[in-house]
Design brief:
This protein is mainly alpha-helical and 169 residues long. The longest helix has 27 residues. The protein has nine helices and two strands; from the N terminus they run H-H-H-E-H-H-H-E-H-H-H. 25% of the residues are buried. A two-stranded antiparallel sheet has the order 1-2. Helix 8 packs across helix 9.
């Protein structure tokens, strides 16, 4: 009976005296090492990411007229991320100033970064209160005073809550 496949031959026996395989080995190891050595001086001349990327964020125009006001301070990456996150929340839903800060803190931003982000945005908090009041009235019924109390509970000032309720009714 014949075997369907021939027995495998060890490949190391044919490569023992082969100079071509030894040259390949030298090139396979030597080429990457040479590339690293030649690239190393270029790495030292590249400025750090913090030196290159200064965030000058211009938030997209939204229906609630929220935009980034460039601060005189430099914005670090955590603050920049907090600004973008705050903008996304405001594009999606209405928040009071303190409610938005608490939401960013819940996401893991420090109180300082969350406060910086919220204060960096030009937000009309009266408009946010009006939007929040309208959202509440879409889902449930409130008396005027009950809705004002709810908005104050969310973190709006009494004046902002009254403005929002007056705009919603």
């Amino acid at each position: 009976m014949t075997k369907p496949f021939p027995a495998p031959q060890p490949s190391y026996l044919s490569a023992v005296g082969s100079p071509k395989k030894q040259k390949k080995w030298v090139w396979l190891v030597g080429a990457p090492v040479l590339a690293l050595v030649l690239a190393a001086p270029a790495w030292n001349s590249v400025p750090a990411a913090a030196d290159v990327a200064r965030l000058d964020i211009a938030a997209p125009v939204s229906t609630v007229a929220v935009e980034f006001s460039p601060a005189k301070q430099d914005v670090n990456s955590s603050q920049g991320n907090a600004i973008r996150s705050a903008q996304q929340y405001l594009d999606y839903s209405a928040f009071s100033r303190s409610g938005l800060i608490h939401q960013l803190e819940y996401e893991g931003f420090s109180t300082a970064d969350a406060t910086f982000a919220v204060d960096s945005l030009n937000v009309d908090w009266n408009e946010q209160a009006a939007k929040s009041a309208k959202q509440y009235l879409e889902y449930t019924s409130f008396s005027r005073s009950g809705l004002i109390d709810q908005l104050v509970y969310e973190g709006f000032t009494r004046a902002q809550a009254e403005y929002g309720v007056n705009a919603a009714y």
